[in-house]
Design goal:
Length: 309
């Protein structure tokens, strides 16, 4: 099975209560691809960078099984850059700098070698770009998953709603779900959003886990309690990459397998936050991932012999 990811490949500069970084590699597409590479080796990415982007990172992505024919390198231009500072609670942050650079007029070109990919992950980009990607595929993938954010709900809601009609799985956080639906109850919000197009909705709740909605079925995945969270940047994209990577590797889009995929994504995200940027994702081993998944299973696995009566 093959996975096509569309998302930013970028630079970040991050400040948290644990320290700060200079310019480091980030971007939704980068986190998604690195996370998914733990489950699937046939990956393709569509993105754009400037000629200031490091060759060693491109070589690293290739070594992880990520094809780069769809990664445009714009000569004489700069890569997208974001800088932010996290508050003490690590859930809120201030954006200090946003430089769109090459992402400002990004036209997603799908190479012929990418056509026929069975799974598609649309990282957080403008809904117009996300829709262009779907429309430029000659064959619809088995599953199209998509991430978005409140920024696009604020400035491009109509475009977003048109794109939602074309996808299978939407991945957003609880604040975004409430804004998109106009409902405070996440159960009610899920019904409103799924009526817009996606049959499956995943609502991320940060340190409080994630919810999976499909038809009349609901699944809740806990978050792993961690002593320290060094950097939450990219955790949501890492979650999405683990989710879609697991689905693609098993080639199973059933609700039961999506439950397993959410645990896989949650496990990868729990590693991501342990160090700045992509650093921890580049260190983890198969044994560590399996042990972390086992810890997730143990959080909700229990026996109960007593019954009311």
């Amino acid at each position: 099975m093959s996975l096509l990811t569309v998302g930013s490949v970028a630079f970040d500069a991050i400040e948290t209560p644990f320290g700060k970084t200079d310019k480091i590699v980030g971007g939704a597409g980068t986190f998604i691809a690195l996370s998914a590479s733990n489950f699937i080796k046939d990956q393709r990415i569509v993105s754009v960078v400037g000629d200031d982007f490091p060759q060693e990172t491109l070589d690293l992505l290739r070594s992880k099984g990520v094809a780069l024919e769809g990664l445009q390198i714009k000569k004489g231009e700069k890569t997208f850059f974001w800088s932010g500072r996290y508050h003490n609670d690590m859930n809120s942050r201030d954006t200090l700098v946003t430089e769109l650079n090459v992402l400002g007029d990004f036209d997603p070109i799908i190479p012929e070698s990418y056509q026929g990919a069975e799974y598609l992950m649309l990282g957080n980009l403008s809904p117009q770009v996300q829709r262009q990607v779907i429309e430029r595929l000659t064959k619809r993938p088995k599953l199209i998953a998509m991430d978005t954010m409140n920024f696009w709900m604020d400035i491009a809601l109509d475009d977003l709603k048109e794109t939602l009609k074309l996808i299978d799985v939407l991945i957003i956080n609880d604040e975004e779900a409430r804004q998109l639906s106009g409902e405070y109850s996440l159960v009610k919000a899920s019904r409103v959003i799924r009526a817009m197009g996606p049959k499956t909705l995943i609502i991320k709740k940060g340190e409080h886990g994630a919810l999976l909605f499909q038809d009349d079925k609901v699944f809740f995945a806990p978050a792993l309690p961690l002593e320290d969270v060094f950097d939450p940047t990219g955790a949501g994209d890492t979650f999405a990459g683990g989710f879609i990577g697991y689905i693609a590797s098993t080639d199973d889009t059933s609700f039961e397998n999506m439950k397993r995929a959410i645990i896989a994504g949650s496990a990868l995200a729990s590693f991501c936050v342990e160090k700045f940027g992509t650093q921890r994702l580049l260190e983890i081993t198969k044994d560590e991932i399996e042990a972390r998944i086992d810890r997730f299973v143990s959080l909700t696995n229990f026996e109960m012999s007593t019954v009311v009566g």
